[in-house]
């Protein structure tokens, strides 16, 4: 009975072995084809059983799709100007990609069961300054001799401490070879290898190749100039934390009502006014700064001027026809921003309007450009600890912002009368934006009685065309859609 059971077990093993012998080649072939590799692997070996790595070259770009209702921006370009403008923006796009694409963007893949140890993240060096490479090591099975090779492309390698128990070649060059019969000696030397960038650049990178026999790995080296911190001295009172900014044009009655309402709740907060009225009128009051601009410079130019004069950590943006109420609680905005340092801007509501939106951007290809879709009332998840707030890409014209963050993005002065979403478009990927309920500002209902102002209020067709042309050339967009 025992002999019969053993025979059955042996027969089962043989059958499974034959089945695997038939199936495994097909499995490996199918796996390779799924990964786009045409090489036929009929009999996998133990050492070559690692799956092939994906290609490390950047992915191919494809034209993006303009959804129903999108504006094709090339339709706003005069035919006789299109070819020249297309060439200009293609040149600018190429330079932009060169400035913003780093060697560190290249995908890297770690091999399984590698005997090599190396830093996979966080190794940063100052340009032109030698820095020890942390975490290098070789842990292989026993051999008569061990040899590792380290290569870089944008720097030089050196060994700080040497020993007579190993051979070191290539010091002061981009390729360093270390060989010894003792693995602990290899590791001791590897712990003393330094990298020095060969070129000065404030934000660049290098890829180091580390090799032992058939095992080769690549790890990133960030080359980055340390930035000087810019900090603010914040007192406990709101006037040392926040400056209120507004832009005015021919609406002095509304502006004065706004100021009166601010002073009911905040008596000492500085108010900055950017004024491009055709015939400016002096606005007086304690802690008010009025900056007179050339006439009709526009909405975003005034915003730039106002932000440039802020000396506090935060500024609060308001339109000149808003009204502060008991619900205009700047302190609540500051509380959220201080609690979540990643945030750059937080918006509230204007009357009952808590306007916010999300942006969806496809880069597209190099020839036509990208596609942008703005989804009104689109947002992301809530802020931790603040269920009344959620993240978005843009908010209403009533917001508290981190001064330094907004200065880095700026407001394009080419946009004079038709502009709002554009600062959030330019800040996409740079500005972390949130919208919170519970903080609101009022809105004056008598703005339309100002006949002189209303002559300029509605943008003409020329302004709309100009804005679309700007999106085409500046943002390298193929189409836009406002939802």
UniProtKB/TrEMBL annotation:
It is a single-pass type II membrane protein. Its main location: Golgi. GO terms for biological process: carbohydrate derivative biosynthetic process; UDP-N-acetylgalactosamine metabolic process; UDP-N-acetylglucosamine metabolic process. Keywords: Disulfide bond, Glycosyltransferase, Golgi apparatus, Membrane, Signal-anchor, Transferase, Transmembrane, Transmembrane helix. GO terms for molecular function: acetylgalactosaminyltransferase activity. The keyword Lipoprotein does not apply. InterPro entries: Glyco_trans_2-like (IPR001173), GM2_synthase (IPR011143), Nucleotide-diphossugar_trans (IPR029044). The keyword ATP-binding does not apply. Pfam families: Glycos_transf_2 (PF00535). GO terms for cellular component: Golgi membrane. Residues 41-65 are annotated as: Disordered. It is found in: Golgi apparatus membrane. Residues 51-61 have a biased composition (Pro residues). Residues 243-353 form the Glycosyltransferase 2-like domain. Homodimer; disulfide-linked. Belongs to the glycosyltransferase 2 family. This is Beta-1,4 N-acetylgalactosaminyltransferase 1-like. The lineage of its organism: Eukaryota, Metazoa, Chordata, Craniata, Vertebrata.
